[in-house]
Amino acid sequence: MPSSISEAPALVQVRDMWKSFRHGSRKLDVLRGVNLDLRAGEMVTIIGASGAGKSTLLHCLGTLDLPTSGEILFYPPGGGTPTDITRLSPPDLADFRNRTIGFVFQFHHLLPEFSALENAMMPALIARISTRQAREQAEAMLDAVGMSHRLDHRPGELSGGEQQRVAIARALAMQPRLLLADEPTGNLDTKTSEEVHELLFRLNEEHDLTMLVVTHNMELAQKMPRVVRMADGRILEQGLGSSDDPDRVPAE
Ligand code: ADP
Ligand code: MG
Taking every pair of C-alpha atoms in the chain, what is the biggest distance, in angstroms? Predict the structure, then answer.
């Protein structure tokens, strides 16, 4: 393992990304030249006022939406030539998304008719992985998020924090290289938010999982190793991304 994040290989590089929406007769530039580098194993927090473009950035990065211009370069696991995912064909993009990206949203979006285990198995079943393997992966992730005692519960039989833990397990069941979380605790009370944030932090540390987390919670942001601020479709500040950074806010 690299001795510090600053020596870790690049995972993704966003280069001069623009995203415009047409709103009536007007063109709305929502992302205006975003540059962002994420290294493997890094945990990056995005803060910024509502409307700054945070969700749009995550959607483009996660290939749920296509930027108007710019590059999103993903590096293969062992290093080497990156792929500009904005140029992939729709089927290749869907495959890439399924294997590489995990999403967690503000609302858990669990399927109410299915158990925690079935929900967490869903991405693997969609990817046509065998039921046995899907179950093994889902159980392992539900265990990692502390939910192995609630496998058979439906979302309605779980607390808000537990629902979000299951959503995180589902996002991680395919072992993505990048977890994108858009205000994952925006719908939770303070104590539960803290618990979910601690879980994300632990998953980053223990599983070396790269994540980009949008949050409104400044207390949480201060505990994070690297914070990026967005305003008006641009990234204003960028931390050094190094745990050796002397100016870094201590995690404890
Ligand atoms: P944030 O997540 O930082 O609150 P968003 O990325 O959701 O911000 O939105 C940034 C801006 O882009 C907002 O002003 C929003 O109204 C606008 N926007 C987002 N999606 C669309 C869309 N599909 N069509 C038009 N405008 C949009
Ligand atoms: Mg948003």
Answer: 54
